[in-house]
């Protein structure tokens, strides 16, 4: 019997500004905290709260992990296969 696979995860991509923020994170604890938040978002892209705003583009969402002190602003693509991170705060 083949092994059961879990739900398919969305792929994480970074905007240019989020990639620059990522480059500036040097603390191993901060990287670990961000990693955990990104895993949560990739498994359940709707986990974040919608941010009110313009309806012309994709819905911007905010995920905050109070325990790890991480905040990520992101949006999910139309096919729900890619999560684009727009802003990182660790």
Compact description:
The protein contains two helices and five strands; from the N terminus they run βααββββ.
Note down, in words, how this protein is organized.
This protein is α+β, with helices and mostly antiparallel strands and 90 residues long. Helix content is 27%, strand content 29%. It has two helices and five strands. It has helices at 16-23, 28-43; strands at 11-14, 49-50, 61-65, 70-76, 82-89. It has a five-stranded mixed β-sheet with strand order 1-5-4-3-2. Strand 3 (61-65) and strand 4 (70-76) form a beta hairpin. The model has no long low-confidence stretch (mean pLDDT 88).
* Spatial strand arrangement across the major sheet: 1-5-4-3-2
Query: Which regions are unreliable across 5 or more consecutive residues at pLDDT < 50?
Result: none
The residue-averaged pLDDT reads: 88
Class by SSE composition:
alpha+beta
Give the proportion of residues in helices: 25-40%
- Give the C-alpha Rg: 14 Å
Largest sheet: 5 strands, mixed
Number of strands: 5
The end-to-end span amounts to 43 Å
Characteristic terms for this protein:
5 strands
């Amino acid at each position: 019997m083949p092994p059961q696979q879990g739900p398919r995860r969305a792929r994480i991509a970074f905007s240019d500004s989020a990639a620059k923020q990522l480059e500036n994170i040097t603390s191993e604890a901060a990287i670990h905290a961000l990693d955990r938040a990104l895993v949560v978002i990739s498994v359940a892209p709707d986990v974040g709260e919608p941010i009110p705003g313009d309806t012309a583009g994709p819905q911007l969402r905010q995920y905050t992990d109070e325990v790890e002190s991480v905040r990520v602003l992101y949006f999910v693509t139309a096919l729900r296969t890619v999560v684009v991170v727009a802003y990182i705060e660790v």
